[in-house]
Specification:
381 residues; seven-stranded mixed beta sheet; 34% helix; alpha+beta; Alpha-Beta Plaits
């Protein structure tokens, strides 16, 4: 029955949509044309109610016959990455230095495909929300959508992500923790610039930065000793002065990424760095400033919802592959799962497929039907 419904749409049209999204990528928070293209597609091809939410939108299907169950939601992300297109693709990115290198073009195309199928499936007897989210890559888009879940009374919510290193079209889903929490922190020291020939007249933050580097290295090593869960600290940038040999710099900064299974572990490590920075600043008479970026909560699947994904996959004859460890990259779908039961599952791109966030990556069009069929099955149950 599901295959009959899936065959009622023109998959070539869905692939064309995916390629159009790929050709016109937009960064997080700037997805205006992407949003318009998807909204226009759904309005042209369905009778779903399209609800503009500003930076993002949703489409609502309300079946004529309802069984009293609360609405179910499905989410896709729309943003691209500041990574150049290096492949020679007929639908390659037309935006310099920007490309869909995480597959969000495919995620959005899959949800658009689902919009075409809902009205053909009489087994669906509950409202269905299709949520097209902005700014996943920066972690800024998930929280507003999570707030909407509560306002709309959505009872469960699902998403998928493509995943390389697994068999093509295999389905992976974990109970509980499935992706790490993460956060960026920049510590800026401000002293006083002076001539390099009279360094005593200035306040150079280099010693403070050096001590922060050593502390970070110690904390990173300490975190790996005897740990049975992920806790990572990575220095991602250090800035101090330049190749001006006559100047003793007066300001500098260091940036870190924290990544952890448990949000409390992340917070504890961050606090240790903040406290040390303040101590060093006081010792050297330096001003200290902190700035945070890209905060992501841990993504924790509801076990019952994860089991529903497995049951749906089995009923569709899909391969279920084990996923023994959480995926370390972060995902702001975690905000949804803090307020609503749900699960994110993964669909294999192929064992040798390039990994996301690399210039050589492109979404695998051959996996589009798998998440769509799973979403449809979940909406029926």
């Amino acid at each position: 029955m599901e295959q009959e419904i899936l065959n009622q749409i023109d998959w070539h049209k869905i692939i064309q949509l995916r390629h159009a999204l790929h050709a016109h990528p937009e960064l997080s928070g700037q997805e205006r044309e992407t949003k318009k293209r998807l909204m226009d597609f759904i309005r042209e091809h369905t009778d779903l109610q399209v609800i503009d939410q500003g930076d993002w939108f949703c489409a609502l299907y309300e079946p004529a016959v309802q069984n009293g169950k609360p609405p179910i939601g499905f989410r896709a992300d729309m943003d691209a990455l500041p990574i150049p297109e290096t492949q020679s693709l007929p639908y390659g990115s037309q935006a310099e230095g920007i490309a869909h290198k995480c597959g969000h073009d495919g995620h959005s195309a899959a949800l658009a495909a689902l919009s075409l199928l809902l009205e053909h499936d009489r087994k669906i007897q509950r409202p269905v929300y299709l949520i097209f989210q902005s700014a996943e890559e920066t972690g800024a888009g998930g929280k507003p959508c999570a707030d909407f879940l509560q306002d709309a009374g959505i009872g469960e919510v699902y998403a998928f992500h493509n995943l390389s290193g697994y068999p093509e079209n295999a389905v992976m889903v974990r109970d509980g923790l499935t992706q790490c929490a993460s956060k960026g922190l920049t510590i800026r020291f401000l002293g006083k610039e002076t001539h390099a020939g009279a360094p005593e007249n200035g306040k150079n933050p280099a010693p403070a930065l050096a001590r922060m580097i050593l502390l970070a290295d110690h904390l990173a090593e300490e975190a790996q000793n005897g740990q049975d869960r992920t806790l990572l600290l990575t220095i991602v940038g250090v800035n101090l002065g330049g190749r001006n040999f006559g100047i003793s710099p007066g300001e500098g900064e260091i940036s870190f990424t924290f990544r952890a299974d448990a949000e409390e572990d992340l917070a504890q490590m961050e606090n240790r760095l903040r406290e040390e920075a303040l101590r060093l600043g006081k010792m050297a008479a330096l001003s200290v400033a902190f700035s945070e970026s890209d905060p992501f909560p841990a993504t924790v699947n509801d076990s019952d919802c994860a089991e529903r994904v497995r049951t749906a996959a089995r009923s569709l004859g899909l391969e279920l592959a084990p996923m023994d460890e959480p995926w370390r990259p972060s995902e702001d779908f975690g905000w949804y799962l803090k307020v609503c039961p749900g699960a994110i599952f993964y669909v294999g791109n192929g064992e040798d497929w390039p990994i996301p966030h690399r210039p050589e990556y492109d979404f695998n069009d051959h996996i589009l039907r798998t998440p769509v069929s799973l979403f449809l099955k979940l909406a029926e149950d």
